[in-house]
Amino acid sequence: FYLTPPQVNSILKANEYSFKVPEFDGKNVSSVLGFDSNQLPANAPIEDRRSAATCLQTRGMLLGVFDGHAGCACAQAVSERLFYYIAVSLLPHETLLEIENAVESGRALLPILQWHKHPNDYFSKEASKLYFNSLRTYWQELIDLNSGETTDVKEALINAFKRLDNDISLEAQVGDPNSFLNYLVLRVAFSGATACVAHVDGVDLHIANTGDSRAMLGVQEEDGSWSAVNLSYDHNAQNEHEVERVKMEHPKSEEKSLVKQDRLLGLLMPFRAFGDVKFKWSIELQKRVVESGPDQLNDNEYTKFIPPNYHTPPYLTAEPEVIYHKLRPQDKFLVLATDGLWETMHRQDVARIVGEYLTGVHHQQPIAVGGYKVTLGQMHGLLTERRARISSVFEDQNAATHLIRHAVGNNEFGTVDHERLSKMLSLPEELARMYRDDITIIVVQFNSHVIGACQNEE
Amino acid sequence: AARMFLRLLSDVWWRAANPKWRRMTCSQRSTSSTTEPHPVSLPAQAQVVICGGGIMGTSVAYHLSKMGWTDIVLLEQGRLAAGTTRFCAGIVSTARHMSIELKMADYSNKLYRQLEQETGVKTGYMKTGSISLAQTQDRLISLKRIASSLNVMGIPCEIITPKQVAQLHPLINIHDLVGAMYVPEDALVSSANVSLALATAASWNGVQIHERTSVSHVSVQKGRVTAVETDRGQIQCQYFVNCAGQWAYELGHSGEEPVNIPLHACEHFYLLTHPLKEPLASNLPTIVDPDGRIYIRNWQGGILSGGFEKNPKPLFTEGRNQLEIHNLQEDWDHFEPLLSALLRRMPDLEALQIMQLVNCPESFTPDMRCIMGESPTVRGYFVLAGMNSAGISYGGGAGKYLAEWMVNGYPSENVWPLDLKRFGALQSSRTFLRHRVMEVMPLMCDLKVPRWDFQTGRQLRTSPLYDRLDAQGARWMEKHGFERVKYFVPPGKDLLDLDQSKTFYKPDWFDIVGSEVKCCKEAVCVIDMSSFTKFEISSTGDEALESLQYLFSNDLDVPVGHVVHTGMLNEKGGYENDCSIARLSKRSFFMISPTDQQVHCWAWLKNRLPDDSNLTMEDVTWKYTALNLIGPRAVDVLSELSYAPVTPEHFPSLFCKEMSVGYANGIRVMSITHTGEPGFMLYIPIEYALHVYNEVMNMGQKYGIRNAGYYALRSLRIEKFFAFWGQDLDAFTTPMECGREFQVKLEKGMQFVGQEALLEQKQNGVYKRFTMFILEDHDTDMDLWPWWGEPIFRNGRYVGKTTSSAYSYSLERHVCLGFVQHFDEKTGEELVVTTDFINQGEYEIDIGGQRFQAKAKLYPFSSLFTHRRRKDEEELSGYQRE
């Protein structure tokens, strides 16, 4: 079984999406030029989600990737809801009041977010009322709490993450009279999702990360070469600090059973996540909810299964680790991706491949004859080869697609091997998950001119 | 190494050529090259200051000094011949499409040939010949057309077979060739040394040359050049010549009174190699392979090869000045297609070692033709720049023509196609230039088929009806930035096919235009002709009439409401402009001229009208939309829309009335159509344009009205023997030579410009005669179509060239218009052309090397058209503009 190059391309490009920040008067005053995103499923259905939106009541742009496990319900819910929680957390008191008054009097709401969605990125219609009510409760509390201080982005991100996870948990405990919704909120709570979210506002870049997706900055050095800067830490067993944290939060007696086979309680890979109430609720609560829940839940062995050595919940948190970075002109792009990418590619290669892709041929190291003895024939051969290499870049109009092509198709020499690509993409559904994970990538391109200008103003 | 060599040579030359200067500066020069003191202080004044020490500046200085002007200062910001001139490939090629370009190149070649002898400076002149290769039949046709022109100019040239190519050049792969053109007299030179030689000769004649002196701006007072400001002080002068090459645009904009010189630089790459094992002979012909987009010449036993890629890299858009062009980045990836073409053409070169890839910027212009002449706004400000990478080929001739222009007031040839005044401010946008030159540079190698149009820099000036017409299938061409309709594609036709039609034969639009023509002849058509240049000239007293009577050859003292066709002649009686003037009132006139006259005609009149506040001239081109209602039913449409009698009895030909059309009032209606067909021109204030157009189309429906374009107009006017300015008529053509004596009132009671010359011609006869040719044995479907520039043969001898041609749908024959001269069979001397001489010859027209029999006529086929002509429709005043 063999896929032709056009077939490969149509698979790779099925989910690709690009957004360019619109220009006004021929100028783009945003520090973001735009972004490319894409995802390649390995699970059926895919458990990864992605989101991107522009904040309309505050400045800034939000982008995030969400890696679901034990189903896609939680990742889906987080991808729909998290940005609203963040946006609300960032809103000034007056705007919150204005919104609340509008809801109260049935007037049209100020739009809070402008979404940038691929047609396949859907929102659940049934739950929107429920989600909205939870969100409204949140902002009402924020209004009551009015601290009078200006909102700190870092704090807002942490609050939004924690609040959403809390709401997910509460909704599942309370349940819903509508049986479909009731089942939905339970599925959301019992499945899990990691989140890696970027908030870009001018030169201020915040990354809030929960779990093992990753954010990486592509930096162009003075000599034109590319290097990678990590803007998040994986929350998993490979991260000593994270293991340390988990151990600190539980009695010494559990030390041995907390992390087994590089997994939390021997079960979960990420050490932080949304949902996953099996790692958060007490055993009693879990039993009560499952028993009173719908039959589908009751029949599910996974939900009924209580993790071993489960003594002092919660074992899991959705609280993100927030890293601040002030953008510099040499910071050309940001890659947000789920672990499916990072398992197959080193970040240094990611930086190089995206960097070369975005800058195009021009920054391919130029050839100079210098003092060497080169014949026309040799030069011709060299140039034809370079051209062939470049043409693979031009196959993709989307940096994320280009990266996926490399992630899936790279051979040992670091170049895309069509045969390998064809094999990997034609794996039957049940086998695909054994060779690769879902991959979701967002590549954000920065506007160096604007960033440089901001720097000079200071 | 090449650069070093030239630098040394420049030093050597200065020592040899300028002993006085050597004494003063030789010691410093040899010890330090960075802190050279300036040898001689600048003069406080001079007659002429030339800016730019490249091939153009030195050639202008050389020719001016030869013509006796010696009070000249030439300023160069870096070193002489250090800019584009130093890097250019040094190919002198006469294979040019346009006759004026061909003449310039031919003169340059002859000049360079003897330059070494004249000056003692080694110019590296080597007669090698050149071979232009054709990979396709179309290319071969294009070459054959050039060969026909070269041959009648007396430049040896032949079309040869691929086998002959192999005999002339040992390395060429001929397998993909269908033929070639060989020009044995073409040559190679060292371009920098040619420039230095010209400078040497000029300095002998007294021209002062100052290097390392930059011009900051040119001072202007009362519209005249008064002085040049440099970094070393001011020079007062009467004339300034901008030969600043790719910096000419910026220099033009540096003064308070900007001079628009539309050109833009692109990177240009060529390759130098080490010598072959068996070094190439220095007299090996230069190869031009336009289908491969490359040229190849021998260079010091190796080769020099460059080309014009499809994806040029424009540069200096923001305008960056550099003293000397440093060798810009080599870009091998960019050069790859050209290198592939080179190795395909000469596979044996694979083992040849590379020496260098040279990146040398060249400047390009919006229409691929160079820029020369005087600024329309600043008198005494001359320009010579924008050579489109043919600077060496044109250098000598261009310098000569510009020198003649300055000294005599006009060059000895018609240089309108190169005149700076063909452009206006509208072509000076940086963005426009950047986009346009990216199209122009690849065009250097592209096949030039009849009636191709530029694709970039479009939709700049449009009629208010543009969208309406476009939606109805209009196909557009551009003139002076204005979009004009070629023809309308009927619904259902394959549009893509038509747009890509590129052929020397019968074009795809043949039937489309045919049906438009038919409609013009049998019903009524509308053509949007808004691009015409329109001026209003008025005065409080009789100043307007008096001035115009002096400037125009026809009698303008006509009753109000009359329209007069008249030439705007120069002192030699030649047409500077051809226009129609309506007398709106006793003291105001409405003047209509060809589209591309907007700048030239304005400058001509401004410079000659008295400086009188009672006399005003206004450019109202933008204020009016012009609709041409052509056809026998035009009168019905107009009368229904205006409720006014417009039949010939009430509205005879050549009248102008203001009337209402539909709801719109104040429409200037003229009973002319520029085609000889009955009908009207409607000059509509632009806000009424859409209304009037809609009314006309609605009302016209029952008379079978339809849209038509300029191609139909062209066919109509050519079969009626109407000449148009810019193609048939130029500054070297008088009304006497084109059968328009009736448009001249020699006895109008006062003097007018050109009167003496015309009187002289009337007495002694003319030396060329505008003639109409009907092709006899030409098969419209199978044979090559005529275009313009085809040689005309009378009894087997060359007598002139065609200037325009079209297929006449009524005659069902091709009609060519052109000028016939009479050369003495023995001496070649030009003799008077009489009517008998025209009528008593057997004629042939050479189209791409094939001759077709033609019937010559001095008057249109009136009989063919009389049955449709109204009794008093006497628009014999054959005149047309496009």
Automatic annotation (TrEMBL), chain A:
InterPro entries the record matches: PP2C, PP2C_BS, PPM-type-like_dom_sf, PPM-type_phosphatase-like_dom
Location(s), subcellular: Mitochondrion
SMART domains in alphabetical order: PP2Cc
Pfam families, per the entry: PP2C (PF00481)
GO cellular component, one term: mitochondrion
UniProt keyword annotation of Metal-binding present: yes
EC number: 3.1.3.43
UniProt enzyme class: hydrolase
Cofactor(s) the record lists: Mn(2+); Mg(2+)
Catalytic activity: O-phospho-L-seryl-[pyruvate dehydrogenase E1 alpha subunit] + H2O = L-seryl-[pyruvate dehydrogenase E1 alpha subunit] + phosphate
Keywords: Acetylation, Calcium, Hydrolase, Magnesium, Metal-binding, Mitochondrion, Protein phosphatase, Transit peptide
Molecular function, one GO term: metal ion binding
Ranges of residues in domain PPM-type phosphatase: 32-446
Record function comment: Mitochondrial enzyme that catalyzes the dephosphorylation and concomitant reactivation of the alpha subunit of the E1 component of the pyruvate dehydrogenase complex (PDC), thereby stimulating the conversion of pyruvate into acetyl-CoA.
PANTHER family cross-referenced by the UniProt entry: [PYRUVATE DEHYDROGENASE [ACETYL-TRANSFERRING]]-PHOSPHATASE 1, MITOCHONDRIAL, PROTEIN PHOSPHATASE 2C
Complex and partners: Heterodimer of a catalytic (PDP1) and a regulatory (PDPR) subunit.
Family: Belongs to the PP2C family.
Stated name of the protein: [Pyruvate dehydrogenase [acetyl-transferring]]-phosphatase 1, mitochondrial
Protein species of origin: Chunga burmeisteri
Automatic annotation (TrEMBL), chain B:
GO cellular component, one term: mitochondrial matrix
Ranges for domain Aminomethyltransferase C-terminal: 768-861
Keyword Mitochondrion: yes
Cross-referenced InterPro entries: FAD-dep_OxRdtase, FAD/NAD-bd_sf, FAO_M, GcvT/YgfZ/DmdA, GcvT/YgfZ_C, GcvT_C, GCVT_N, TrmE/GcvT-like
Alphabetized UniProt keyword annotations: Mitochondrion, Transit peptide
Highest taxon in the source lineage: Eukaryota
The keyword Ribonucleoprotein is assigned to this record: no
Subunit structure comment from the entry: Heterodimer of a catalytic (PDP1) and a regulatory (PDPR) subunit.
Protein name, entry field: Pyruvate dehydrogenase phosphatase regulatory subunit, mitochondrial
Species: Pandion haliaetus (Osprey)
